[in-house]
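pls design
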């Protein structure tokens, strides 16, 4: 594995209450941590900020017992409230430059949906990049065509920053994804929907 010294989290869980089909999201989080997850991103797209904050507080309590950092998806208020390790945003969310000013010294993840993003200043404010999606995924329906293995290689040529592969990551394809230049694997349904 090409572990990046600036992002030492090879297995990255993207968690939401809705995606947890067989257990509570807190139980999934704890079992996943015990199973080897290195970092958790809480992604709650369909609830109020108050609900998101409540879930984030619960998750932080569980994750803190094991020293696992939490990243909040696209909600600076929630991230600030729980003193999260960082924030992850996409191209239609608050910009990485704005986050850098409001939420200094934290991890800033930025989803890469097209190569033109590397022609903007925003990439300079991001700490790591989510390749979104690598393959078609039921979890990420609001994105463009998948990057695939060739897309990962194109992105790797654009930056030396940590790359996180997301989108239908599973045991059958992660070796190819890592070999193409990804430093970390983000998993959602392969863990959250598992019994």
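designed seq:
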């Amino acid at each position: 594995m090409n572990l990046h010294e600036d992002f030492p989290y090879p297995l990255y869980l993207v968690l939401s209450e809705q995606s947890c089909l067989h257990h509570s999201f807190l139980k999934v989080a704890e079992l996943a941590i015990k199973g080897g997850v290195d970092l958790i991103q809480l992604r709650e797209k369909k609830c109020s900020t108050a609900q998101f904050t409540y879930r984030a507080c619960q998750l932080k309590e569980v994750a803190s017992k094991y020293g696992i950092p939490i990243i909040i998806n696209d909600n600076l208020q929630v991230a600030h409230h729980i003193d999260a390790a960082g924030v992850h945003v996409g191209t239609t969310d608050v910009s990485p430059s704005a986050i850098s000013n409001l939420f200094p010294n934290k991890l800033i993840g930025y989803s890469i949906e097209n190569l033109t993003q590397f022609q903007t200043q925003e990439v300079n404010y991001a700490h790591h990049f989510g390749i979104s999606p690598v393959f078609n995924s039921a979890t990420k329906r609001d994105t463009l065509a998948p990057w695939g293995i060739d897309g990962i290689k194109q992105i790797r040529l654009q930056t030396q920053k940590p790359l996180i592969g997301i989108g239908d990551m599973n045991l059958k394809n992660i070796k190819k994804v890592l070999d193409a230049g990804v430093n970390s694997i983000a998993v959602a349904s392969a863990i959250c929907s598992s019994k």
